[in-house]
């Protein structure tokens, strides 16, 4: 069995364990209108990248697996909260292969259950047995606010056709990079690592998160709903300034930008046409190149870790680099 196969098996076991822990969280039965949607959101099968990062970093720094569980679950619950509210704002109908909460239960219930998930995330985090728990709580709170900032910027950018790639990267640093960075921070904090290690591993997650988001931008164009297990086309309909979109309209005059975006909206359901428009402008290749740059930059921060931990996280980066969903 190759190291890569062993590592993939380890990730599979971690996902199963995370799923089981989330399913067994001691949530009340009533009111059903609150807790059933929360349980539903947590039961949907995801990649579980964020809790996996907590485990890989923490164990790689010598911490016991069991002591990492509350922090790992907390970041996944927090991530699930952001998805529930993001789906409302983006009007997405499917997530992780099932109808979104606002489609299944309505807008008010989705907002309320998202709020419940946020509260549950903090409660779960505080079950961590660590001398750094106060520091962890502060970083958790800061990350939550930055994620909200990133989402706010994402919404603001929709009506601004002059957004630059630099502004985009600053937005995804907050929206996606911050939570992956937090996941790495928490693993290192539970392991009681020194500040240099915590900082470096945060930047690893930060860069990994930016690459992950650009991959999502690409897959919104190149993939299909069956593979992605979520509705596609909402980015184009909402005129989101994804990295491929920014590259596509870069250099166009204002009127050209409006016509191009309008054309994309009119053809949002035609995957082949959309893909062709981005391909002929070289946006797909440029986006892939930036993903590779960011992933390599992420790996450069791993030198502070023990050799085994470096190898594990490099293997995770490699798997992410080839993901198709």
Quote the CATH topology.
Answer: Farnesyl Diphosphate Synthase
- The Rg value, from CA coordinates, equals 20 Å
The structural class is mainly alpha
- Beta-strand residue fraction: under 5%
**Number of discrete helical segments:** 16
- The sequence of SSEs as H and E is HHHHEEHHHHHHHHHHHH
Flag low-confidence runs.
none
Total count of domains? 1
The CATH homologous superfamily = Farnesyl Diphosphate Synthase
Q: What is the level-2 CATH architecture name?
A: Orthogonal Bundle
Biggest beta sheet summary = 2 strands, antiparallel
The N- and C-terminal alpha carbons lie at a distance of: 26 Å
CATH class placement: Mainly Alpha
Helix coverage percent of residues?
Answer: over 70%
Q: For the residues shown, what is the average pLDDT?
A: 93
Overall description:
The structure is a single chain. With 325 residues, the protein is mostly helical. It has a single domain, classed as Farnesyl Diphosphate Synthase (Orthogonal Bundle). Helices cover 75% and strands 1% of the residues. The protein has 16 helices and two strands. The chain has a two-stranded antiparallel sheet. Strand 1 and strand 2 form a beta hairpin. Helix 3 runs antiparallel to helix 16, helix 8 packs across helix 9 and helix 9 packs antiparallel against helix 15. The longest helix has 28 residues. It is globular and about 55 Å long. The mean pLDDT is 93.
């Amino acid at each position: 069995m190759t190291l890569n196969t062993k590592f993939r098996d380890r990730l599979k076991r971690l996902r199963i364990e995370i799923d089981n822990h989330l399913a067994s969280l001691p949530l009340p039965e009533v009111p059903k209108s609150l807790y059933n949607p929360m349980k539903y959101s947590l039961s949907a099968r995801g990649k579980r990248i964020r809790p996996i990062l907590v485990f890989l970093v923490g164990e790689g720094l010598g911490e016991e697996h069991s002591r990492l569980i509350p922090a790992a679950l907390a970041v996944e619950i927090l991530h699930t909260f952001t998805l529930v509210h993001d789906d409302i704002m983006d009007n997405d109908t499917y997530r992780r292969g099932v109808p979104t909460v606002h489609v299944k239960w309505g807008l008010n219930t989705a907002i309320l259950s998202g709020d419940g998930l946020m509260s549950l995330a903090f409660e779960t985090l505080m079950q961590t047995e660590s001398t750094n728990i106060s520091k962890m709580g502060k970083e958790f709170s800061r990350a939550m606010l930055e994620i909200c900032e990133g989402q706010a910027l994402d919404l603001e950018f929709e009506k601004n056709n002059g957004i630059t790639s630099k502004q985009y990267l600053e937005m995804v640093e907050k929206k996606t990079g911050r939570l992956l960075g937090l996941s790495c921070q928490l693993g290192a904090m539970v392991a009681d690592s020194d500040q240099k290690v915590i900082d470096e591993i945060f930047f690893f997650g930060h860069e990994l998160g930016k690459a992950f988001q650009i991959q999502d931008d690409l897959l919104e164009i190149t993939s299909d709903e069956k593979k992605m297990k979520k509705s596609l086309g909402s980015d184009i309909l909402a005129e989101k300034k994804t990295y491929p979109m920014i590259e596509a309209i870069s250099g166009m005059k204002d009127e050209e930008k409006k016509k191009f975006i309008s054309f994309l909206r009119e053809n949002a359901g035609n995957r082949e046409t959309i893909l062709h428009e981005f391909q002929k402008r070289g946006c797909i290749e440029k986006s892939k190149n930036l993903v590779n740059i960011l992933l390599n930059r992420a790996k450069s921060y791993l030198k502070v870790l023990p050799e085994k931990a470096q190898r594990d996280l490099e293997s995770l980066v490699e798997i992410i680099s080839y993901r198709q969903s």
